[in-house]
Amino acid sequence: MTDTSQLRLGITYVPYLHPEHLRDLAQAAQECGLDDLWVWEDCFKQSGVAAAAAALAWTDTVRVGIGLLPVPLRNVALTAMEIATLSRLFPGRLLPGIGHGVQPWMGQVGARVGSPLTLLREYATALRRLLAGKEVSVNGRYVQLDAVTLDWPPAEPPALGIGGDGPKSVALAGELADVYLLSAARTDAEIADAYAIASAARQRRDPGAPALPMVSAPITATGPGARERVDAEIPFWGKEPDPGIGSAGDAEKVAADFRRLAGLGVTTIAVQPTRDEPDLLGLVEFLGREVKPLLAAG
């Protein structure tokens, strides 16, 4: 059995929920003992930075992750300023993530680029240097900075997450990220393949580096009709319903599914509720009061 005593467990605040629900969800996550709250930045729903700032202000202990900020949409200096500000206001509690963004959405706002991989590499490299307090000058294909330095860089730069599904994007995350962010509807085989690709890229860059932390967002439900609700959610991610995707059932079943993910290299579970979840705060309590103790037992 995989030791899951160190596995982080959190809830994802999906942006098809009304923004007014965020405060209750964030505070419930903390009260029920969850480790993390994750927010998204989806076009044209909600701001990941604004949601993260509010959630951090409403809580004291939970880590808030942003999974993820679409880099074509955001100037890297602005993103660095926002991350630095939040990191100084709430030290050690922010985990920002970046990625390509959904390409049709990027096209809608005139931000789609010819080489998303090139942009993400340039962006991640510049962002890391800015957050480290360096003066950054770069004249890349997409990122141009002329002697930019943050006045208030974080005292300790936060870990940087990178997400992406294709093999080249996964390898780039393994090379440049501190944390790899998986998308929601992944099979075990897809997770194992991503872990292998990211880990190999990490070792090429830094031989002997520790294993790359990995965040999974399994679609999860409990109670009557749980499997049916999970299966109805999976097609939104371009997949066919599959019993190996997501988790549905009682605490023992859900904990067993999460242990299986930990065995594939996952270090953080950021549960994604279905969009028809009838009792969101009840799901948070179920995770914190029933599932987390089972995971903590190892």
Automatic annotation (TrEMBL):
What CDD domains does its record include? Answer: Tetrahydromethanopterin_reductase (cd01097)
Q: Give every Luciferase-like domain span.
A: 18-225
The answer to whether UniProt assigns keyword Oxidoreductase to this entry is yes
**UniProt KW Oxidoreductase keyword:** yes
Q: The organism sits in which domain of life?
A: Bacteria
Q: Which UniProt keywords apply?
A: Oxidoreductase
Pfam families per the record?
A: Bac_luciferase (PF00296)
Q: What is this protein called?
A: LLM class flavin-dependent oxidoreductase
What taxonomic lineage is listed for the species of origin?
A: Bacteria, Bacillati, Actinomycetota, Actinomycetes, Propionibacteriales
